[in-house]
Each structure stands twice: as structure tokens, then as C-alpha cells.
Amino acid sequence: MQFLITVLLDGLIYASYLFIVSLGLTITFGVMKILNVAHGGFFAWGAYLASISIIYLGDNEYNSFLYYFAIFLSAIIVGLFFGYIIERFILRKMYNEDIHLIVLATFGLFWILEDLILHVFGVDPLMPYYPAMELGGIEVGGIFQGVYSLTLAGLAIIVAFICWYFLKKTKYGKVLQSVIFDREVSVSMGINVTKVYLITFIIGGMLGALGGAYIAPTISVSPGFAIDVVVMSFAVVVIGGMGSVPGALIGSLIVGLVRAFAVHQAPILELFIIYAIMAIVLIIKPEGLFAPPKPRKI
Amino acid sequence: MKLTNLKTLGKIAITGLIASVLPMSVNAKDTVKVGVVSFLTGPAAGPFGTPAKQGAEIVIDAINSGTMPAPYNTKGFAGATMNPIFSDESGGGTKQVGLFRDFVQKQNVDAMIGYISSGNCMAIGPVADEVKMLTIFSTCGTERLYEEKLRSHVFRTQGNAVGDSLAAAKYIADEYFKGKVSTSDKMYTGINQNYAWGQDSYKFFKLGMAQYVPSAVGSSKPQFPKLFSGQYGSEISALSLDKAKIVHTSFWNGDFEAFMLQALVRGFFQKKILVSSVGGSGVDSLGKKFPDGVIMGTRGNVGLVVRNNTTPLNKWFIDSYKKKYGAYPLGPSYQYARAVMLYKVGMDKAAKAAGKFPTQDQVIAAMKGVTFESFADTIEMKRGDGHQAVHSIAYGVTKYNKAKGEPGIEKIITYPASCIYPPAGAISQKWVESGMPGRKCN
Fold this sequence. Notes:
The complex is a heterodimer of chains A (298) and B (442).
Chain A: H1 2-32, H2 39-59, H3 65-89, H4 99-121, H5 130-135, E1 137-140, E2 143-146, H6 147-169, H7 171-181, H8 183-188, H9 193-215, H10 227-240, H11 245-265, H12 270-284
Helix pairs in contact in A: 1-6, 1-9, 1-10, 1-11, 2-3, 2-4, 2-9, 3-9, 6-7, 10-11, 10-12, 11-12
Chain B: H1 3-30, E1 31-38, H2 45-65, E2 81-88, H3 93-105, E3 111-114, H4 118-130, E4 135-137, H5 144-147, E5 154-156, H6 161-176, E6 187-190, H7 196-212, E7 217-218, H8 233-241, E8 246-249, H9 253-264, E9 273-276, H10 280-286, E10 295-297, H11 312-325, H12 331-354, H13 360-367, E11 371-373, E12 378-383, E13 388-390, E14 393-398, E15 409-415, H14 417-420, H15 428-433
Parallel strand pairs in B: 1-2, 1-3, 3-4, 4-5, 6-7, 6-8, 8-9, 9-10
Antiparallel strand pairs in B: 10-14, 11-12, 12-13, 14-15
């Protein structure tokens, strides 16, 4: 029983982390049909901005509540700033280009964002551990879990709920679904797709940055740490289905739980098993488990 | 064109050639151009690459100006000033081989110093021999570098990973198992990065434990997460559920800090004893949050374990480093400094023997098998046919120094090279498995 509870908790925590990061990636793809490799740059910038803010607040003994304010504010700033610049001045000029060129452009943007980090923040690792340390640990199923890490699951649930509510219950959500379904029809119905693209890209960037900002207090934030996260997020999105929000949720859960089980039972298979699942899904259902339906075009 | 004109042109060309070559050879005696390679970007830059570069800079500047303490107090390298060209080690072996060739063939360097990654050392080693470029590896740890093939132009001033792991096992036997320890406490496991360094480190730790503590039992599920994975929640849970009390790790860079942070909030160190072979940088990053009681090594007599060592050379290095960079030098700072010091020793010795500015072959001959003074011990180039260093290795237990307000270490035991490295010519694994014949620990 202790084993099962532990695997379940470990898997859920890791899945929550993956879900928040991959959600932005899959929304951007769903709406804009762009595989945004620069998503890792948003993740890294979110982590760095949150880190310096938290370290400043912690060193000067400000109220702990401000850590969380700093985390969300960092995500908003990074998403708005880089999201606007990248979409408005680079991607918008490329929408009619070959999709591979756009992927290459976002790949280049990822490295530019990474390099900017070196110039702005330097190479020294940042350790904004204050929130994680203050919340400490709690015994669940016989072993201690970090409370801060558990809050990640709460955040993922809130983000998933907001996302669901936004897409299903709001007018803008319906507009977004229309663009996801068919861009041309949406334009003919008078939807300002250009504006939808910009807002979507900014929201996607914010989610990527939120993943980095929230995880920062539990890691050593150093240059290049975002690369693996992007790769893992791609695995999640491929398993769940590119552009599918439920797919990102299910993909994250599958990867998180399977990885946790492997770490406990066969540590040497930890990475292999994730990509094995991805390969199996690609063979059986190449579009992913929950890929959104495509319109039939004549 | 008349023949006389051709002769005149020929004379001009030869004169020009001589004129262009002469200043170069004179300059070669005034300055030596050396490529210094360490991680300047990526996750290894902060805790490893940058302190390494800074350590090299301190020593190079001091030797160039003749201000380093004895026995390095003569000016320059065989009288020449070193002109270092710093380069980034990131990008993997293929990229580094390309950069290495560029240094040799386009920038015409006199020597190459550095390299932290074992993968990069394994890639560069054969190329250095092929292009006949004197190369001094400062940090990388794989024992395969010299056990697979002897190297003609490659030296390494850092002992290999075998010594780090065996010293860790010996420390546990000497310090932790001293007195009463129950059978369940004699179980051990590990969490190491899933590549050559991590796998080899744990392999030799296991082999060492089998020799020093035959009754100790290794876990069937040691953890090998991916390098730079950053998230260790599941691994920490798995280690917590494991009955093993001792946990070995050779984590370095941001991985070590992340693991410590995540383990700390989960009360991991109240139940387990962590043995870290190279986690010195994390002690400073976490400061007073770093837990007491971690068995810590620094891959030699460097960094955290020698902060209170008062040899003139060590005191000078710490003072100079703190003055310039506002922090203690870390293990990599020492390692790069030592590589520069070997170059000086070789250059000066060769120049003295030759009675003039030495050639590369003369420098290599002078460096081969040499013993030179380091900051807190001596380095003997006595393995790998005189190209591979052995040195003492110290381990201690972390204990925050409240009086000084800084991380500290206590219960330090220093193991001599003869105790933890195989004799010249022996293959490490076979030597350990056969009971480490000929080892001398006192």
C-alpha cells in the first residue's frame, strides 16, 4: 500500500509539472499549427525571473505570500513581453512560409532566448529555495513529501479547470475552438484570426513561463536546464495528441505515472519506457490519443 | 622577365620570409599561447566551469608577474608570459574536437589545458596525440583514458574516478562503521547520473565496499537518472523506501544542488547518510541550509576539505581568489590551477636542461613522471607511463561553522595515493576485485 501511494503521488507531482508546461505547447499548436520550440525559452525565462524575485524577497525577509505573487507575475511578464515580440515581429511574417521553416525559426528563437539569459543573468546557478523550504515536508503514506511539490498538483488542477472553463464556457473560448477547427472558415465568419494568434501565443508563453517559475524553488536554475523539459513536453504532446488539451492532461498522467513506477521498480528503464510508450502510440495512433478532429476539406 | 629580375624577386621573397618568421620565433620565447577550455555556458558553467576558469586566471596572472609563492615564484613559463585563450567546453565531443583542431591548426597554440567532461577527454585524447599537441587535462575522471591506451602528448593532473570512489568506501569503513553498526545499517545504494562518470563512480564504490566492508550489501535498485534531469521526486521516494541507509552519489553541477534541495525538504537526511564524491560546490550554494552529516569529498585535497589548510601556497590561493572573486575557490578552481602549475614545472625544467627555450618534446619529457607541489599535497605523475597523476584524497563530514557563518567540514581523513589508486600498469577493476594487492594506507 505504501508503495502504491508513493508511486501515485510521485507520478501525480511529475505529471502536474509536465501538464503545465505542455499545455502551453499544445494550445499554441492547436490554434496556430506551430510547433513552438521556443517554448523552452519561455520556461527558462519564467524560472530566472521568478528566481531573482524570490531570492530578493527571501533575502530581505518579505512576506512569504509575495513569493507566489512573484511567480505568477514573472510568468505574466515573460509571456507578454516575449510572446508579443516573437509573434508580432517574427512569426506573423512567416505564417505563409513552409511549416518546417517556422519550426526552424522557433528553434533559433529558443537559442536566442537561452543566450540572452547568459547575458542578463550570468552563468551562476540560482537557488530560490525559500518557498519550498518554508512549506517543508509532510508525511504521506509513510514517507515525507515536499509540501511545495504537492501544491504543484493543486496548481495543475486549477490551470486545467480554468482552461476547460475558458474553452467551453466563454465566448472567446468558442472563437478559439473555431480557429482550432478551421482557420479559413473562422476568417470568413469575421473572426480576427491575427488577434487570436497573438493572444494564443502570449497565453502559451505564459503557461510555459509559469511552469518554469513554479518549479524554480525546487531546482538549481542554471543555463541550459530547459532543454530536457522541452523534449519531455514534446513526448507528452505527441502521446496525448498535438493540439489537444485533454490529450496534454492524459499524456502527462501517463508519462508521470509510468516514469514513477519505473523509477521504483526498474530505474534503468526510466527514460526508455517513456519513449517506448511514445513510439507505441505513434505506431498505433500516429495523431496521438486525443488529437482534435480535422475538418474534411473538399 | 629577365633572369636578374627573377633573382632580385627571389631575394626579396626570401628576405621577407625570414623577416616574417624571425619576429615570430622571438615572440614564441616571449609569450606562450595556451587554450584553456572549461564550461562557460550550460548547467556546468556556474558550479564548475567558471570557478575553474577563475582558478586558472589567478595562477596564470601570478606566474606571469612572478608573484606566486615558492616554488612557483619565478616569472613566466620558461621566462615566457602565458597568453591564455579561454574557450567554452559545451556542445559535446564532436564540437570540442573541431575547436581543438582549430586551436592547434589555426590559432597555433603552444599547449591546451582544461576539460571537465570525461566524454570530451576521451574524444580529445586521441586527437591530441594525432596532431602532436601537448594537452593537460585538469578535471575529467574516467580511468579509461589511460587504461585503454597510453598517450604520448596528453597529461592529466587529476586522479581518476577510481580513487574518489575507493576513498569514499574506505571512509565509510573507517569512520561510519567504526564501533557498533547494525546489519541493516550496512546496506547501501546510490543515485548517480546515467552516463560514464556516474556509472563508473558507483561501480567502483560498490567494488570498494566489497573489499573494505565485505558484510555490507548493495541495493538491487540503485538510481541512475538522466544527466541534468533536475527533478528527483520519484528517485528520492524510491531511495527513502529502500532499506539501505548509505546513499552514494557522484552528482555534480546543478543536479547535486537540485537533489539536495528536494531531499532536504523531505527529511531525507534524517534517515539516510549521503556520501558525495564531488558535491563541494553545493555546500556553498545552499550555505547554512546544507545539512550537517553528509560525507563529502572534493576529488583530492582541494576545495572545501582544505579551507583551513595553512600551507603558504594554499593560503595565498584562497586569499587571492577571495580578494578577486569574493568567494572561496572550489574544487575545479584548484584543478585548473594545478594543470597550469604542471605546465610551468615542465617548461622551467625543460628550459633548465636544454639551456634555452624548450621545444614541445623537451617539455613533454620534463613533465613525464614528475612530482610537483600542489596547494595542500604533492601531485605525482606516476601512472599512465608518467602522464597520469595520482594524489591523496580527503573526505570529511559536513558541519556548518556557526562561528564563521560559513559551511565547514570536520572529521577529515586523508588517504594517500598508494591506498586508493592501483599501481602503475594495473587495470583498476581487476586490481580492486583481486583485493587491491600492494595498497598502503598508512
